Amino acid sequence: METEWTWNQDEQVHMVTEQLNFQPILAAADGNWNGLPADTVMGHVHLSVVNLDKSEQFYTNVLDYNVVTRYGAQALFVSTGKYHHHFGLNTWNSNNGHAPTNDMVGLKSFTVVLKDAQYAEEVKQSLTTNGFIVENFAEAPAHGGTQLFSTVDPNGLRIIFTLDGE
Asked: pTM score > 0.85 for this model?
């Protein structure tokens, strides 16, 4: 809950890692996965990245997120609007690895809902100025909003940008 977040003098949010007791979660599951409910809004995503420095440059300098917490040279958390984090970026299983290939298991793309059309143009311009591709992604999922454009981050992850998350 936002009122419980603690920010230090360096504008870093205090976060901890704690072991998850997943047994009750598994016990509540019925064994059938039908996807997330249609009205689900994901507050944040954790990404396994190849290079934390390049990822930081992309998410902060190109997409304009702010660093809110660092875990040494292994993890970084970024957000906008003083949110505890929108993206967790870590190299715990991927440091100096390689971008995922099409035949690998894992996250292939995700959608970022932008606040308005003017900001979408600013994001598009920043991507272009910094040498990132801006294109329509033919394989974008039908759900998650109407695609404005997409790009690929330094880790090979496809980001689809939209104005609506429907």
From this structure: no
